[in-house]
Every structure is written in C-alpha cells, then in structure tokens.
C-alpha cells in the first residue's frame, strides 16, 4: 500500500483500506437485494468514488454531482465525505476556500441531518459542485512525489559518493549560500553569527514580491523608528522593499554582525 490511499478496488475480496461497514441494507432501484459495495443504482461504490474524483479533477460538474448523490443516497456518505475531504488537498490548487465549504456541508449533512436524507443529499451535491468548480491542480501531490523521489536519489548518491541526479530545491542549505537569509536569530547558526533584531528586520522579515501594503509598511517604519536600534533611512527603506520576483533570496545590503538582542 505505502502512501497510496487510492488503492481501494471492487467488492470481490480485493484490497480495501477503509474499515466502515458496507451499506448492504435495502435493495437496488429495481428491487433486487444489494450486494456488498453496491449502490442503489446497481453500481460498484468503488467505481463511483473513483469517478467522483476524476470528475472533480476534470471539472465535470454534472458527473461530480451525480456521483456524490449516488454515494449519499446509497448509504455510503462516510465514503463520500472521506473522499471529498481528500480531494480538496489532492486535486485542487492550494488556497481554494472550498476546503472550508466541504467541511461545513459535511457537518450539516452528518451532524444536523441524516446523510441519506434529502437535506443530506443536497449537501453532498453542493460539496461536489463546489469542488468541481474550484481550480483543479495536482500540484501538492506532484510536489510530494517529487520530494520523495529526490530524497531517494539523494540517499542513493550519498551511498556511492556521487552528485545526485536530482536534488532538493534548497541544495545543502548552508550559511553563505543562496538561502543565507534563513539563518537569522531564530536559528543556532544565526545566533552564533550575532544576527539579532537588526538582521531580522532588514532581511528575515521582508515579503514579496508583492510587498507590504501601505498600512503594514507604515507600521514597520514606525516600529523601526521606535526601536532601541538606530536604523538609517536606507535600512528602513530596504526593510519594506519587496523582494525581486527574479531573485527572491538575494539581499545586496552588507551586514557585519550586530547582536541586538
């Protein structure tokens, strides 16, 4: 299995990592007894669950709505909500507010109402539509897989004393390197280098490339003016200057070391 949570197959004894009971109670739409893992419409619930994910990923609203409805009405609401909550982190672009909506719809459907009732089914449809309408992306899953592969390549290269074919985006992460700004007063190396409040204000607290809004920049300037540290005009300007979108990690100002703590 490893970390692949999608390895759940059919109802014929194949692999299933989900433990809640099957919704066998009742009959199909044509009055036949339901088999294990069968929906009211006579579908395999694993297939419907997989279809729901692909519909969300491909932004097919109608298919996503139907799949959610079919699972909810068939007694597989636990499966539906488990998968939808996974989809918002696996198949949507980071920052989509739909994650909060899905949680709210689930609470309404399962805590306030019966999951397979009319209200519960409508909540399921709402949640599926919200996911399908959100911006799809496999970025988090792709990043996780790449970082794991890079870690393996790094470890293999170290065994053979070679350079890795692919490395982490930060390389060795060391003082004086590209990401030197990370070594401020909040790290042991930064403290040893006397990088106190001055270093943090000038370099570690910078944002961008959009920069601070005017109110935040104004507060930063006032904080530096009220500080016990004597900042000059160039330092104050640098502290609130946006980082460059083309070179986010360089800081051209010199710093000699000043333990201001």
From TrEMBL:
Region named Disordered: 1-43, 240-261
Comp. bias intervals (Polar residues): 8-17
InterPro entries noted in UniProt: DNA_pol3_clamp-load_cplx_C
Biased composition (Basic and acidic residues): 21-37
Organism domain of life: Archaea
GO terms classed as biological process: DNA replication
Molecular functions per Gene Ontology: DNA binding
Stated name of the protein: Uncharacterized protein
Lineage: Archaea, Methanobacteriati, Methanobacteriota, Stenosarchaea group, Halobacteria
């Amino acid at each position: 299995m490893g970390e692949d949570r999608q390895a759940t197959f059919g109802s014929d004894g194949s692999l299933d990592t989900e433990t809640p009971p099957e919704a066998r109670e009742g009959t199909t739409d044509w009055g036949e007894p339901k088999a294990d893992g069968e929906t009211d419409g006579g579908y395999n619930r694993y297939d419907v669950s997989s279809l729901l994910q692909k519909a969300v990923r491909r932004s097919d609203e109608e298919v996503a709505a139907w799949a959610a409805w079919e699972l909810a009405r068939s007694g597989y609401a636990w499966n539906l909500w488990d998968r939808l909550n996974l989809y918002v982190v696996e198949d949507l672009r980071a920052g989509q507010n739909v994650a909060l909506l899905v949680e709210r719809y689930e609470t309404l459907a399962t805590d306030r109402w019966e999951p397979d009732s009319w209200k519960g089914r409508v909540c399921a449809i709402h949640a599926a539509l919200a996911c399908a309408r959100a911006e799809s992306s496999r970025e988090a899953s792709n990043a996780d897989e790449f970082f794991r592969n890079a870690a393996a390549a790094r470890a293999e290269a170290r065994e053979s004393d070679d350079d890795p074919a692919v490395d982490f985006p930060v390389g060795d992460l060391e003082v004086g390197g590209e990401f030197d700004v990370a070594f401020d007063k909040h790290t042991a190396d930064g403290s040893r280098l006397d990088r106190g409040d001055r270093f943090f204000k000038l370099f570690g607290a910078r944002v961008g490339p959009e920069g601070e809004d005017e109110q935040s920049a104004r507060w930063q300037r006032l904080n530096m003016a009220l500080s016990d540290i004597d900042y000059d005009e160039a330092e104050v300007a640098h502290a609130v200057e946006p980082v460059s979108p083309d070179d986010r990690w360089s800081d051209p100002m010199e710093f000699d070391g000043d333990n201001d703590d």
